[in-house]
Description:
Layout lengths: L1 E7 L4 E10 L2 E11 L1 H4 L7 H23 L8 E7 L3 H18 L3 E5 H7 L17 E6 L4 E6 L10 H4 L1 E4 L5 H11 L7 H8 L24 H17 L2 H31 L3 E5 L6 H10 L4 E2 L10 H13 L6 H4 L11
Parallel strand pairs: 1-4, 4-5, 6-9, 9-10
Antiparallel strand pairs: 1-2, 2-3, 6-7, 7-8
Helix pairs in contact: 2-3, 4-11, 6-8, 6-9, 7-9, 8-9, 9-10
Amino acid sequence: MSIILGIETSCDECSASVLLHEGNSFRPLSVSTYSQIELHQPFGGVVPEVASRNHLEQIQPVIEDALKKAGVEVVNCDAIAVTNRPGLIGALLVGVTAAKALAYASRKPLIPVHHLEGHLMSAFLSSATGESKKIEFPAIFLMVSGGHTHLHYIEESPLQWPSEMLKTSLIGRSIDDAAGEAFDKTGKILGFPYPGGKWIDEYAQKGNRAAFELPRGLKQKDSYDFSFSGLKTAVLLLTKRLQAEGSIESKLPDLCASVQEAIIDPLIRKSLLLAREKKAKSLVVVGGVAANSRLRMRLKAESPIPVIYPDLQYCTDNAAMIAAAGAVRFSQGQGLRVEQFLKLNAFANAGS
Ligand code: KG4
Ligand code: ZN
């Protein structure tokens, strides 16, 4: 059994969490998250400098709140886990520096966590009722966040994951925009506030999905990669035409329904194709786009194998998933001692 304090500041959520890890159970005792969405909304997207400055203000209260809610002190924790890649460099540095200072002062091991490993681990967090998710392996993981669209084939449960698992299990990825980015960029073209995903989801419920024919990138059967940039251009041209005709307002639900279908179609088709090819026993969908109601409805109807989602609060960025990924690496003896972690850095890229 171990207690891990997790810290996440890679983008626009400042989050801390205390997690209890026991065998295959990853139970968040607390999660405290300060979302900067409203701060970035006037700019239509995340402004890196605004993000890092706000993390600086929020990091300490957020950590204190998470510890208080869990009823523990740092001394009761076995290790501190922090996202150190990939993300906005200034934002990452705030979390990494805070984690280093805490680990140094409390003489605890520090575990650097890859943000995407955190997203994969979000599926293993127990729900509010304390129940663990039942994921049978081999499994397909579809990771659809604001910044990444990855398709992974994973053969073993997290405690067996090798260090290089993110790389070795990766089967397909977006070659340009991520699915979440496609929602956000088309949402911006359609005049929705940032982030556009949930607005498109909402408006699409009253729209006709077949109203507009929009491109599906990389349709060829032998590719598990995705491409969404063509869609963005098509939506821009279509929106201009509808604006000129004066029909954009009335066509908005149809437009949203058509855009949403064009984004989720390849996600569903390729995930199910890979699941069949690999004889996977479950399909796991993680990241912010996993909240999409149409994606969930279609997978429920079309997937022959169980589809597992994290609880909604763990779909978007949060420190519980970082603590869980840290717990796995800690159980494998990968906690860094003080002389090792003082040199720890943050990296904007996903790593080579
Ligand atoms: O995982 P996340 O917090 O981002 C990163 O870690 O990068 O996910 C945020 C993304 C945004 O692109 C947002 O538009 C999208 O998730 N999103 C949705 C929905 N709710 C959030 N996309 C489609 N439908 C939704 N209901
Ligand atoms: Zn994320």
